[in-house]
Amino acid sequence: MASEDVKNSPATVVFDTEAANSLLKELRSTVIAGKTKSYEWRASQLKSLLKMVEDRDKEICDALFSDLSKPEMEAFIHEIAMIKASCKLALKKLKDWMKPEKVKTTLGTFPSSAEIVPEPLGVVLIISAWNYPFLLSVDPVIGAIAAGNAVVLKPSEIAPAMSSLLAKLFGEYLDNSAIKVVEGAVPETSALLEQKWDKIFYTGNGRVGRVIMAAAAKHLTPVVLELGGKSPVLVDSDIDLTVTAKRIVSGKWGCNNGQACVAPDYIITTKNYAPVLIDSIRHQLVKFYGEDALNSLDLSRVVSSNHFARLTKLLDDDRVSGKIIHGGQTDMSSLKIAPTIVLDAPEDSLIMNEEIFGPLLPIITVDKIEDGINFINSRPNPLAAYLFTNKKQLKEEFVSNVSAGGVLINDISLHLMVDTLPFGGVGDSGMGAYHGKFSFDAFSHKKAVLHRSFFGDAPARYPPYTPGKLRLLKALLDGSILGIIRALFGWS
Amino acid sequence: METDLEADLKELRQVFNSGKTKESSWRISQLHGLLHLLEDRENDISMALKQDLGKHHVEAYRDEIGTVVKSVNYALKNLKQWMAGKKASLPLAAFPSKAELLHEPLGVVLIISSWNFPIGLSLEPMIGAIAAGNAIVLKPSELAPSCSSFLAETIRDYLDNSAVKVIEGGSAIGERLLEHKFDKIFFTGSTRVGRSVMSAAAQHLTPVTLELGGKCPAVVDFFSTSRDADMATKRIVWGKFGACAGQACIGIDYVLIEKKYASNLVELLKKYITQCYGDGPTGSHSMSKIINKKHFSRLKSLIDEPRVKSSIVHGGLLDEESLFIWPTILVDPPLDAAIMMEEIFGPLLPVITLERIEDSIEFIRARPKPLALYAFTKDEHFQKGLISETSSGSIMFNDVILQYAVDTLPFGGVGESGFGRYHGKYSFENFSHEKVVVMRSFLIDFWFRYPPWDDKKLQLIKSGLRFDYLGVVLIALGLKSKA
């Protein structure tokens, strides 16, 4: 197994500031040589990536199982299929995306022509997360390559099997002079962050997000931060109960067992409806995962003992443990926690204030369903906000009043599988967005290009300034032909 | 003073939360308020600019009043369209669903502007912030004090004071503001201060736009006719000295030209400088002064260096009392002198000569990415080379500065010249969050979405994700076993 190899191997070279320095130097010279700019290079790298996924899908699934006990279906749907689709889209659209965009110019700058030309930023750093370690590493890399950049990927050390697999596969399939994987933890990441990057793309939590943005500030490096938050699910009584329960259960526990940035974090429903909803959710839980959900093979495990301890701590609070109405079983040796539902945990408990990122689902009850919207708005902006209802007005109110990265009505998480939609947060859930063309844009600079001719110059532009020149200027800025003619002839 | 600031910010937050600034009627009324401000108080604005920068009334109108009026009108004309959601297409596999992208305001935003275009660079971002429905704090530059107090007073009179506030002060106030959480910070100024603004923003995960500067080069190719040479030279003179005496982020910093054409250019430059700004050491009323003693000394020390002084071929005259520096031309000052390493931001124009004009590409690439790149050339091949081989915020051929006035072009930097962009609809987007909204129906649920997993479900999903709908049907009917 990969982790054992690392233990037994001879002391590896430490990746320190000097190493980071020379890494950047090498990548910069690749970029200066113009290698990554051509359409041919970008297409060839994307094709290789696609081949890599197709050839080695079994190893990828194995690494995901090793790191997360991720069921093969999830590995396939959420990570492998999505990367394949992303590669294929980029290959199909690359020429379009690279084309300059013509824009109209105004009378005041006549005669001229203008366009917006996308260009690579240069050398970019992508730091990914452990929960979808393949998807969240490779998807941004696709965008960075499509936009013509050199890339350093720093996968999460909390998913070590995937980290070393990525290092190996990228080494085999991609152009090593332009695309590199640096493995490691805090020291290696810090060494990387001391360097000057042209963009940093980070997926993870807000605490580290702050550190990364502060490091980026020293070099004026723009960042994309894909963070998280507590994504709420507001459930009305006017719904299709079975479908709702199925979607909630698969959205919460069927996506890495709650360890997903857009996983339903907690549910809000009315006091009256709660018993009915809870019953249905419990029913679906058993249908999906059986009576002994703790040991179901269709559920990912908790990623590490640190996170296991973090999650069990959330339940340790007496005021919370007394409110467990389903599940609650844990097994430290296998790092498993059963799907657990907690009813009306106190508002100031940890479980209601930190992003859960695990298989615990608090349900909060309110008197009227509209109170739920206020509840959500009194908290930091989440990455996703969900509503289940048939009521048109409630939908409209929710959409216009709840601020989140994305809002989904009557389903969970699907929006991130659609590549025509930008995926990103707002406020504490992050800044910037990607997926599809938005990935290409995230790693590009859109340069404004204006062509003017030597013909046609308004003497009004030049000093010495006179009232007549001022009149002409006013007319030019106003864009009105009559005004210009009048000013030119001294009629205004 | 302490509690005033906190009280102001609290009020802004409350007003934003009340939903007032989100209404299109509010946004339109505020934009009209801006228009009235600019129209009613045109003279006061000119006076304030004359006081702070010695700006001529025409320059003031052109660069700070007229352009802003144009931008407000553009925003009013397009606001409805910008506010309308954009439908997004979804694949059939997601049927039945609808998706759209809605722009929503970010909340309470902070705009920090600079001293060189103190009115324009305060109001232009404000147009975007208002159009996008935010509550606003504007912190104008204390180095342009007349303009700062003008803004504080008139914005209070013409705009909704509960939602748009001007907070005056220097770096102390700036630091105090930055301790608080804003939903966006829009900063125009130097790279040094840009770094500390971004560091402060990082503590609150506040997104920022940094409009910085750099050394904007003007590449000058060979001219086939004297008419072209004249036109280009006038534009260069205007682009250097005519925009706040060179104190402009997109002003020309230095010129690159082939050795053999340099002396011609210098003669033409001298001719047009004299024509536009007169002759002699007394201040020309058509050119701005230097903002303050500190910058005056900074500029003086750039040319005081002996190796630099000896490269001066025109001008080099300074008058500390009136803070006036005469248009100055230098030919080939040493490339490692401060004047060629730092952004000049003043009326000193180095002319750097090269063996071949194509070498300008290498020269520019070896240096930090500037906010703007100018090239006077009709050679299409050379133009293409410049576009693809260099990087800058924007690039303009055969003229200068005008890109600032084109509403359809994004205005912003790259690398050390900054990030983020605005003008036109980009201003609106800059201060908005593009929220994804997806509506699904309860009808039609693919049963193979849910565990427990088995191979048949896997094959169905494989087909589904490939949008191979026939395959989905066949597998479901048991007529096909593998996707």
UniProtKB/TrEMBL annotation, chain A:
The protein's name in its UniProt record: Uncharacterized protein
Organismal lineage: Eukaryota, Viridiplantae, Streptophyta, Embryophyta, Tracheophyta
TrEMBL record, chain B:
Protein name, per record: Uncharacterized protein
Organism classification: Eukaryota, Viridiplantae, Streptophyta, Embryophyta, Tracheophyta
